[in-house]
């Protein structure tokens, strides 16, 4: 393992122990159609079946479980477009602490409703809405944290969050064996950084590839330039990947352990959602389809290889989902 990174394999293994019996060990599904179409042996890690519907629960619970008693009493604050919001809210509920969640006012209604449900009845807990195109969610989070003495847990640039997210890839390799390639969606880099550490620790020689929406390829640009690139908020249906920049901690891991970043279009995400719905009988949200779309739509040729694909979540407004598929 490359030294001086925020996390190592031991951190992911420790997170797995912390999460045992709390997270769902989600299935690794296969499809003969996919294997024939790609010429590869493909394993989908289905985090759309995780608690609260996405991998984010892993990192959130791992981070909150390490709080000191005073931190638990004061509570947690987080900012998120939806999945990290739900993950923090549910984790705080399970661990008995208050939570304040900063969410964009145009977040998917289903994600807002689910987050409200997890916070309901918890003293000191609430949702604070903001405009993602004109306001700074990080500044809002820091202000509230300072005012209330809460601990801010960002959605990706945090060692405990990264280590928790990496347990998804760890489970996949434990369940299906060594991989030649692993495809992972990229927003801020928490999932891919943790997954890369886990994959290289358990499957030497694996190549890890990230996948972003075409409209928001900041990580692809960052790796090409060797420095973090900031972009305007991407306009894409992959709301979980509408980040303006990756984190400093996640970027260092990606530089060291990720082979490259691919991009796919919104139209390709819709085709991939349709494939999962029609052929594999699964609802996968647009962000959750990023990695699969790169493989299914031919952005990368992995013929003859054992390939892991992380489906990051399934939290999508069903009315909007139906409109996309009717397209």
Describe this structure in words.
The protein is of the alpha/beta class and 327 residues long. It has two domains: 9-54 and 158-326, Rossmann fold (3-Layer(aba) Sandwich); 57-152, Rossmann fold. The chain has helices spanning 9-19, 32-38, 56-64, 69-74, 83-95, 109-119, 137-148, 159-176, 190-202, 218-225, 248-257, 266-279, 290-296, 318-326; strands spanning 28-29, 41-46, 76-79, 99-104, 126-130, 151-152, 181-185, 207-213, 258-264, 306-311. The strands form two sheets. Strands 1-2-10-7-8-9 form a six-stranded mixed sheet, with helices on both faces. Strands 5-4-3-6 form a four-stranded parallel sheet, sandwiched between helices. Strand 4 (99-104), helix 6 (109-119) and strand 5 form a beta-alpha-beta unit. Helix 1 (9-19) crosses helix 8 (159-176) and helix 8 crosses helix 9. The radius of gyration is 18 Å and the shape is globular. The termini are far apart.
Order of helices and strands: HEHEHHEHEHEHEHEHEHHEHHEH
| Percent of residues in helices | 40-55%
Strand content: 15-25%
* Helical/strand content category: alpha/beta
* Low-confidence sequence ranges: none
Structural shape: globular
CATH class of the largest domain reads Alpha Beta
**CATH fold type of the largest domain:** Rossmann fold
Rg computed from alpha carbons, rounded to a whole number of angstroms: 18 Å
Overall pLDDT confidence? 95
